[in-house]
Write a structure and sequence with these properties.
Elements lengths: L1 E6 L7 H14 L3 E5 L12 E3 L2 H4 L21 E2 L5 E2 L2 H13 L4 E6 L1 H12 L4 E5 L15 H22 L2 E6 L6 H9 L4 E3 L7 H13 L5 E6 L11 E3 L8 E2 L2 H13 L3 E5 L11 H19 L5 E6 L2 E6 H5 L10 H8 L9
Parallel strand pairs: 1-2, 1-6, 6-7, 7-14, 8-10, 8-13, 9-10
Antiparallel strand pairs: 2-3, 4-5, 11-12, 14-15
The structure holds 6-O-phosphono-beta-D-fructofuranose.
The site of 6-O-phosphono-beta-D-fructofuranose (F6P) has 13 residues, from strand 12.
Length: 360
């Protein structure tokens, strides 16, 4: 048997651990693994790929990025069609199927977030035996309690906040740290809580600038002259505006970014306190994965091969209650998993004095 693997969308710490898990488990069964380069693009005829022999993946688990390369643009960007369903154009899907047939690939593992898994589902529905592996630092996929990459991403936020605390305190400043996460606030919430942020602004909880300014003034009056604010890139301004760096129209998702600067400027205007903004950006995606993400990635890779062995196609590997199992890919891509405003974790943060900028 020969199987294929590709990763698609933004890179994510732990991708190489998945590849190592897949290659090791497949080699135990006497299977060959073909790794497609640069995401789905590697499926375009004549195919851009490499044979992943076990010796090739030894030691890669601790490396950030992906040895296969990836892309989140290109020919496989889904477009919303007449039926309002985002799909990759049929002629592109047909080309991918030709390559898979030509290389005699018996099953394809797609490691990706919601967009890439939607494409995996499209391929599966058209007869390609596909398995999904959930990947995204945003942790926003339904049907899995956690995606690999998230732990590494928010660890970077915590490290940044630890550093920002000392400079903010020394200068009695407010510092606003903008973090990734797209339309989900998980990175901001976990990173902010663990890093001791005073204010956390999420896409899921609309905030008001006057509430934030009052909170900062109150802290000042109590003798806390510095304040750390974490803002998720997908948090909306009071007007409801999503701040973007680039609108890409139907060529993919808009690039978010810039809300940190906007919030910082408002805070300085409303409180009179010296305020700085800092954007963490791709530091959250780069570098070595944490121990947790290495193990999660490895287990996900091994499980993907198990699913192929059992003929369970159209399924996605899923982490639930300390167990790696599987769910239909549909369950993961139907809607995003976001932070619930009334969840226990938000309540816990409020209990220790975190301000979410809302009126309760
Ligand atoms: O989805 C992962 C993610 O890192 C988001 O948090 C972020 O908005 C986006 O990708 C950045 O994408 P790019 O690498 O294309 O700038």
């Amino acid at each position: 048997m020969r199987i294929g693997i590709l990763n698609s969308g933004g890179d994510c710490p732990g991708l190489n651990a998945v590849i190592h898990g897949v290659v090791s488990a497949a080699s135990n069964l006497g299977w060959d693994v073909i790794g497609f380069r640069d995401g789905f693009e590697g499926l375009l005829p004549p195919g851009d790929y490499m044979l992943l022999e076990p010796a090739r993946t030894i030691g890669i688990m601790k490396l950030g990025g992906t040895i296969l390369g990836t892309t989140n643009k290109g020919h496989f960007v889904a477009k919303v069609g007449a039926g309002n369903v985002a799909e990759v154009p049929q002629e592109i899907v047909d080309k991918a199927k030709t390559t898979l047939r030509h290389l005699e690939i018996g099953a394809l593992i797609v490691v990706g977030g919601d967009g890439s898994l939607t494409t995996a589902l499209q391929l599966y529905r058209q007869g390609v035996p596909s398995i999904g592996v959930p990947k995204t630092i945003d942790n926003d996929l339904q049907a899995t309690a956690m995606t690999f990459g998230f732990d590494s991403a928010y660890a970077t936020v915590v490290d940044a906040l630890d550093r920002l605390h000392t400079t903010a305190e020394s200068h009695k400043r407010v510092i606003v740290l903008e973090v990734m996460g797209r339309n989900a606030g998980w990175i901001a919430l976990y990173g902010g809580m663990a890093g001791g942020a005073d204010v956390i602004l999420l896409p899921e909880i609309p905030f008001r600038m006057d509430v934030i300014a009052n909170y900062i003034n109150q802290r000042d009056a109590q003798g806390h002259h510095s304040t750390l604010v974490v803002v998720a890139e997908g948090a909306k301004l009071e007007s409801g505006e999503l701040v973007t760096k680039e609108k890409v129209g139907n060529k993919g998702e808009d690039r978010l970014g810039g809300i940190g600067e906007r919030v910082a400027a408002e805070i300085e205007k409303m409180t009179g306190k010296e305020t700085r903004a800092c954007t963490l950006g791709h530091l959250q995606r780069g570098g070595a994965p944490t121990a947790l993400d290495r193990i999660l990635g490895l287990r996900f890779g091994v499980k993907a091969v198990d699913l192929i062995k059992d003929g369970k196609f159209g399924r996605m590997v899923s982490y639930q209650q300390y167990h790696v199992g599987d769910v239909p890919i549909e369950d993961a891509v139907m809607k995003l998993r976001t932070v619930a405003k009334d969840s226990e974790i938000v309540a816990a943060a409020r209990s220790v004095g975190t301000c979410f900028g809302d009126v309760q």
